[in-house]
Amino acid sequence: MNIHVFTKRVQEKENLSYDDMIQAAEIIFNEETPKEAIAEFLVALHEKGETAEEIAALSIVMKSNAIHFPVTKGTYIDICGTGGDGLKTFNISTTSAFVLASSFVKVAKHGNRKISSSSGSADVLQALGIHTDFTVHESVQLLEQEGITFLYAPAVHPKLKRIGEVRRAIGKPTIFNLVGPLTNPVDLEVQLVGINRPDFVEEYAKVLSILGRKRAIVISGSQGMDEASLDHRNRSTLLENGEIKPFTINIEELGLQPASISHLRGGTPEENAEILKELLKGKRSPYYDAVVLNSALGFFAYGIAETLKEGVSMARDAIESGRAYKKLEAVIEFSQNTIKEQAI
């Protein structure tokens, strides 16, 4: 079938069924489909407004085109946001990933270079001395050895290069801004996702349910921040065994200090790397509290904290005991060793 058939239906404000969107997505990923036709379809979809079924279907097709990572069976979590909030906050989810991994949570972190921030996940990792071009074997080995790995989106999704050219030509958000966190090549049972659309939190949880996540948290912070913020304006929902339950976050009740978004702004990758290291050494600041909060959400999503308050205690302990910083050092050492091996 031709992509124009689907484009026409979407232009007429018709929502595509899951099966129809699977077909449309397969056409999009076909190298012979003209870029202009792909752009027309993506723009029409954005103008209509994407549904849970459409997002889930595109995620399935995109993941089927990803490179396979043969990890051992286990419960893995991804903790990342959709990006696109334009708030230039420092790397909260990347920092939180080290906190979680230091406390027996298996983290398969999907990430990219900067898009809407001053420093994306891959940028700050490189500034820390963690390279982003691990082989599949090295990525799996790092996950097995340290309970954490970083999967760089362009390396994981080779077919996205062409789609990326289309997206840049469009110059505004498309459905691909929403599917990034859903296409981790590691099979996830658990997820913590930040999105930049507060109005879409429950719908996004429905996407995760369609994709088979057993437990997940979707959050949208103040001003559409794609992580939990510290100013009481979070919109959050828990997906548990198919049931979607909104919940509230009270910053003071969790023993954290309220702070505005301006206090969470980051800088260059090098500046953010310094913030990350100082924070994991225990330096108190709004950055510290933001990481404690988002790590607590990760522990709660993973199911090893029964409440958010318990998650906050676990996050503090991981940092104050030095475990989180040791985890960072272990990952840096692993990365440096692989560079030496490649040079031999």
Automatic annotation (TrEMBL):
Top-level enzyme category: transferase
BP GO terms, sorted: L-tryptophan biosynthetic process
Pfam family, any one: Glycos_transf_3
Pathway: Amino-acid biosynthesis; L-tryptophan biosynthesis; L-tryptophan from chorismate: step 2/5
Family annotation (SUPFAM superfamilies): Nucleoside phosphorylase/phosphoribosyltransferase catalytic domain, Nucleoside phosphorylase/phosphoribosyltransferase N-terminal domain
Keywords: Amino-acid biosynthesis, Aromatic amino acid biosynthesis, Glycosyltransferase, Magnesium, Metal-binding, Transferase, Tryptophan biosynthesis
Cofactor note text: Binds 2 magnesium ions per monomer.
Function field: Catalyzes the transfer of the phosphoribosyl group of 5-phosphorylribose-1-pyrophosphate (PRPP) to anthranilate to yield N-(5'-phosphoribosyl)-anthranilate (PRA).
Subunit structure: Homodimer.
Protein name in the entry: Anthranilate phosphoribosyltransferase
Annotated source species: Ureibacillus thermosphaericus
Taxonomic path: Bacteria, Bacillati, Bacillota, Bacilli, Bacillales
